[in-house]
Design brief:
Distance between the termini: 55 Å
Radius of gyration: 20 Å
Helix content: 40-55%
Shape: flat
Number of domains: 1
Largest sheet: 3 strands, mixed
């Protein structure tokens, strides 16, 4: 009996979580478009760029290429083809693998 209760509760919670995510993206996009129209909505973050070359034995060698300024969107989700600024500030290392 308790198992059925918990399964129903988890099912409803998952349904509400999916519904919230489906509503959050269009709202985030609308807010971002309004910000861009007013001259904001975009930012930039300094990132550290590296190139990773694959070697024998499943090893990689990293070659630093320097710092660069990367454009980002001030939003919850990626907008306008740019990564959100909150994500870039937490992950400033950009690795290109060959």
């Amino acid at each position: 009996m308790w198992a059925r209760f918990w399964l129903r509760l988890l099912g409803k919670a998952a349904l509400w979580l999916v519904a919230a995510a489906l509503v959050a993206y269009p709202v985030d996009f609308a807010i971002w478009k309004i910000r861009v129209a007013r001259g904001g909505g975009m930012g930039s973050v300094d990132t550290y760029d590296m190139v990773a070359a694959e070697e024998k034995g499943n090893k990689e060698e990293f070659f630093p290429t320097g710092n660069s300024t990367t454009p980002c969107s001030i939003s919850l989700y990626p907008q306008g083809g740019n990564t959100p600024c909150w994500y870039l500030t937490r992950h400033p290392d950009h690795v290109v693998r060959y």
